[in-house]
Design brief:
The chain is of the alpha/beta class and 243 residues long. It has a single domain, classed as Metal-dependent hydrolases (TIM Barrel), CATH 3.20.20. The protein has ten helices and ten strands. It has a five-stranded parallel sheet, sandwiched between helices. It has a three-stranded parallel sheet with strand order 1-2-3. It has a two-stranded antiparallel sheet with strand order 9-10. Helix 2 links the parallel strand 2 and strand 3. Helix 2 runs parallel beside helix 3, helix 3 runs parallel beside helix 4 and helix 9 packs across helix 10. The longest helix has 17 residues. The protein is globular.
């Protein structure tokens, strides 16, 4: 079974095609949203699906919209067990809204505290700050999506019971491979981050996670079936935390 814990279905040219493919091929797909208003638009299309679930998001690079969108976050919070994409981005692209992001992320963590949710986190150049805030808020069931931070911090993230979702771009870069090598198999999940990753001159899609499975299989000298089973077990542990 392929599991895609981070995919932006609403950003594809034809979102319904991606939903149909995930349903037909039996790919568990967690669809991120960047704002609560995006969640509201997409929810009717996935509420009856068996394999696709929609996450409620407040992307850090959309921070200028967070204040006016926060009521929507509170309104829709009970409709889903998945939260994402949320987090912080202190790169050059996001640094100008750093303080807004921190306040927004703090509010989100407060809103979900004690609620049974699985969250997918954007942490670019803000990995240490993210981890501190998660621990302070006793946040459970967190996945660091496309982690690109310090190798040494990975151990501390694992110690606190959090997970990492890896994608096709990571297996093709030296830095990504180093990060993957540091993460125990018991804390690994898979993602496509489609459509933002390209494969064979087209948008990456959930089914392309098979390439990540193949990479992990060769790296660990295990069959693809065993790798898929391990990823499934990891995801089931997360699910057990919200039932």
């Amino acid at each position: 079974m392929i599991i895609d814990t981070h995919c932006h279905i609403d950003m594809y040219m034809d979102p319904l095609e991606i939903i149909k493919e995930s349903e037909t091929k039996g790919i568990i797909t967690i669809a991120m949203t960047n704002l609560p208003s995006h969640f509201e638009m997409g929810f009717p299309f996935v509420r009856q699906t068996k394999k696709v679930r929609l996450a409620l998001g407040m992307h850090p690079l959309y921070a200028e919209h967070h204040l006016k969108e926060f009521n929507g976050f509170q309104k829709h919070l009970s409709k889903t067990s998945y939260i994402g994409e949320i987090g912080l981005d202190f790169s050059r692209e996001g640094f100008s809204t750093k303080e807004i992001q921190i306040e927004s992320f703090r509010r989100i963590l407060k809103e979900i505290r004690g609620k049974k949710k699985i969250i997918s986190i954007h942490s670019r150049r803000a990995e240490d700050e993210i981890l501190k805030m998660l621990i302070e808020n006793n946040t459970q069931n967190a996945i660091f999506h496309w982690y690109s931070g310090p190798l040494g911090l990975i151990d501390k993230i694992v110690e606190n019971g959090y997970y990492f979702s890896i994608n096709q771009s990571m297996i093709l870069s030296k830095s990504g491979q180093q990060i993957i090598n540091r993460i125990p198999l018991s804390n690994l999940l898979t993602e496509s981050d489609g459509p933002f990753i390209k494969y064979n001159n087209r948008e990456n899609r959930p089914s392309d996670i098979a390439l990540v499975i193949e990479y992990l299989s060769k790296k660990n000298n295990l069959s693809s079936i065993l790798i898929e089973e391990q990823i499934s077990q990891n995801f089931k542990k997360l699910l057990n935390g919200i039932v």
